[in-house]
């Protein structure tokens, strides 16, 4: 027998691992809206340089915090316009995915982390982590920017940025299988949660149908 959902909560798609939802038990949204993500990125601009590039990477790639912190210089493909992440939630090692990102992010990574210089060295920067931080240090850096942006609640977190990426991608008409690839989901049913968009994102989807 299924439990009663509060207003605003959505049913978990069949097969979604871990019962992933876009709302918590109290009906609070777990993802940032497009406007909130823009506020977050603006608040990141005056932050310390390494914190700013971490925030940009999370917002524009949809990667997990642990995946960003594992990123090395050799996996920043400046010519191809992609970041190559090791998908850490898969059961076996050695699974990578390439995620296209804006040129502004690639330029910032090169400026702050010296990507081109690192790639000219032996090993092409394979030993040069962009953020040699612990997970807690990375989380605190992101949290400080969330506070500066006036954001709080379940959405104000690295996971909230990842969910925001998924919702924005689906709302923009990106096919689910492509979003699945970019996010590194093992099952398409996990990615399908982002098709259950709400608020302004849902209105944007509805306008496409109306017009």
Automatic annotation (TrEMBL):
UniProt entry tagged with the keyword Cytoplasm: no
Domain Tyr recombinase: 27-207
Disordered as annotated region, ranges: 1-24
Keywords for this protein: DNA integration, DNA recombination, DNA-binding, Plasmid
Molecular-function GO terms, alphabetical: DNA binding
One GO-annotated biological process of the protein: DNA recombination
PANTHER family per record: INTEGRASE_RECOMBINASE PROTEIN MJ0367-RELATED, PHAGE INTEGRASE-RELATED
Family statement drawn from the similarity comment of this UniProt entry: Belongs to the 'phage' integrase family.
Protein name from the UniProt record: Integrase
Species per Swiss-Prot/TrEMBL record: Komagataeibacter nataicola
Top-level taxonomy: Bacteria, Pseudomonadati, Pseudomonadota, Alphaproteobacteria, Acetobacterales
């Amino acid at each position: 027998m299924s439990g009663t959902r509060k207003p605003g909560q959505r049913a978990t798609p069949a097969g979604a691992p871990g019962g992933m939802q876009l709302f918590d038990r109290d009906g609070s949204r777990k993802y940032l809206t497009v406007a909130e993500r823009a506020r977050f990125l603006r608040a990141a601009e005056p932050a310390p340089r390494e914190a700013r590039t971490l925030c940009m990477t999370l917002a524009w790639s949809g990667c997990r915090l642990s995946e960003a912190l594992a990123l090395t210089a050799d996996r920043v493909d400046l010519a191809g316009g992609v970041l190559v992440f090791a998908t850490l939630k898969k059961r076996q090692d050695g699974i990578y995915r390439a995620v296209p990102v804006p040129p502004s992010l690639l330029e910032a990574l090169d400026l702050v982390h010296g990507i081109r210089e690192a790639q000219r060295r032996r090993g092409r920067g394979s030993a040069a982590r962009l953020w040699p931080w612990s997970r807690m240090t990375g989380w605190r850096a992101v949290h400080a920017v969330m506070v500066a942006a006036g954001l709080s609640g379940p959405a104000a977190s690295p996971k909230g940025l990842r969910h925001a990426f998924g919702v924005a991608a689906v709302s923009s008409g990106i096919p689910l299988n492509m979003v699945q690839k970019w996010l590194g989901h093992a099952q398409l049913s996990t990615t399908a949660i982002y098709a259950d968009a709400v608020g302004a994102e849902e209105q944007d989807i509805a306008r496409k149908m109306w017009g």
